[in-house]
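Structure (tokenized):
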């Protein structure tokens, strides 16, 4: 069944069926993944005082996660392509859930650093693996919306997780002799283990193994993706594993990703502290969680709208760069408003809306010219290099706060990084300019 001869109704029904089967479950997977990655921001409100951790210790420990992530990212994604998504994603989730729960036993900076590093090692490959996995099911013209829906889990994890984390710390504190932050790590780590087991049951490695599709639907999805990959070959030449590292666009996009991630995780890991310092009682963790819902709730809406509009228009570059520019304005706002409650919440909202709108469309840029093994390596490399920003951002704020008792200069530096990322995106060539043979492929 050639994709050209398929009716529009059949095409829409098939991809809708695929989306409803995959996206909700992957969405849940990413929620628990992201909670395990960032709940340390809430734990810090109590853990630092209990264990005598300075802001510099916390900032370095929060960020060292991404060193382990960087080292094992590319091998993990290549292994996923070789052994299949089902087995490898399950392995990732089970190991990171166990390590996350083990944080309840931390007593020294050494063990805090060690477990954060190991958590990064365990989770390496999950996000780029899912991005790669979606390329097996959706052609490029449909991928930004699918990625945006999947990635709203970042916002929803914080919308739901912020008040839940605050409530756990506030109301479970002292139960069974454990502090609230210990219960936080335990109760938010175990769901990853359970869902990791479910991955083995509910995920399929590709369209041809999906028994919930008819044979016509399996053939159509496989052919649509194959034709999309063939167009990428026409645009940029067929890439092998090493070819991805020789393409300057891969390196440029790695810098872009670093520029956005450095600000995102700096604000994410420090948001509970930033909000608490707006005048909230130091024991009212639930209120911190409730206020944290505002930026993340707005971001969930913004990223879906941005992704859908990007798919509708076929434009990628300005949708991605524009998000970074909005985040830049929010970071500048955080630097100048001090501890004023309403302006600070507005600035945090601009940062979250901008960054999540950017990242929802960003991943359509590398997948526009990479496919196969090159996509596995290229996506993982961009994500791993970029995610080093997750180390430098929180660590930068922690060191500056310890040295100056202020975060102002750090926010200005992060705003500069967001501007750099936006400029690089806009300077990259548009894929449709590479050859007239792919004029029908939407501009990225």
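Design, position by position:
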């Amino acid at each position: 069944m050639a994709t050209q001869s398929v009716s529009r109704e059949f095409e829409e029904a098939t991809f809708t069926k695929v989306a409803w089967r995959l996206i909700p479950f992957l969405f849940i997977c990413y929620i628990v993944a992201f909670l395990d990655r960032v709940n340390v921001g809430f734990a810090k409100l109590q853990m630092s005082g209990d264990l005598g951790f300075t802001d510099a210790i916390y900032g370095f420990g929060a960020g060292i996660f991404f060193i382990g992530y960087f080292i094992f990212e590319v091998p993990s994604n290549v292994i996923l392509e070789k052994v299949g998504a089902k087995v490898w994603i399950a392995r990732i989730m089970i190991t990171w859930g166990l390590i996350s729960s083990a944080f309840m036993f931390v007593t020294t900076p050494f063990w805090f650093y060690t477990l954060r590093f190991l958590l990064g090692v365990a989770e390496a490959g999950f996000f780029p693996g899912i991005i790669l996995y979606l390329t097996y099911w959706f052609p490029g013209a449909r991928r930004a919306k699918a990625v945006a829906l999947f990635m709203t889990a970042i916002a929803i994890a914080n919308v739901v997780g912020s008040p839940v984390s605050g409530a756990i710390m506030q109301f479970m504190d002292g139960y069974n002799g454990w502090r609230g932050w210990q219960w936080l790590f335990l109760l938010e780590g175990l769901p990853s283990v359970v869902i990791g087991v479910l991955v083995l049951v509910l995920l399929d490695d590709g369209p041809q193994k999906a028994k919930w599709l008819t044979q016509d639907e399996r053939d159509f999805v496989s052919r649509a993706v194959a034709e999309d990959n063939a167009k990428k070959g026409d645009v940029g030449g067929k890439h092998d594993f090493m070819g991805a590292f020789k393409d300057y666009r891969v390196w440029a996009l790695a810098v872009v990703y670093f520029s956005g991630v450095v600000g995102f995780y700096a604000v994410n890991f420090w948001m509970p502290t930033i909000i608490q310092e707006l005048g909230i009682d130091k024991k009212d963790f639930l209120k911190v969680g409730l206020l944290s819902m505002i930026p993340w709730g707005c971001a969930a809406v913004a990223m879906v709208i941005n992704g859908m509009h990007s798919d509708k228009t076929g434009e990628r570059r300005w949708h991605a760069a524009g998000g970074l520019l909005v985040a830049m304005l929010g970071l500048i706002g955080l630097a100048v408003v001090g501890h004023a409650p309403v302006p600070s919440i507005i600035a945090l909202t601009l940062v979250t809306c901008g960054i999540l709108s950017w990242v929802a469309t960003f991943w359509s840029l590398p997948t526009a010219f990479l496919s196969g093994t090159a996509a596995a390596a290229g996506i993982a490399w961009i994500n791993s290099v970029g995610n080093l920003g997750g180390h430098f951002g929180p660590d930068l704020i922690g060191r500056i706060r310890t040295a100056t008792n202020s975060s102002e200069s750090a926010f200005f530096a992060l705003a500069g990084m967001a501007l750099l990322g936006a400029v690089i995106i806009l300077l990259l060539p548009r894929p449709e300019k590479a050859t007239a043979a792919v004029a029908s492929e939407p501009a990225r």
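Reviewer-requested clarification: The radius of gyration is 21 Å. Residues 234-238, 432-444 have pLDDT under 50 and may be disordered.
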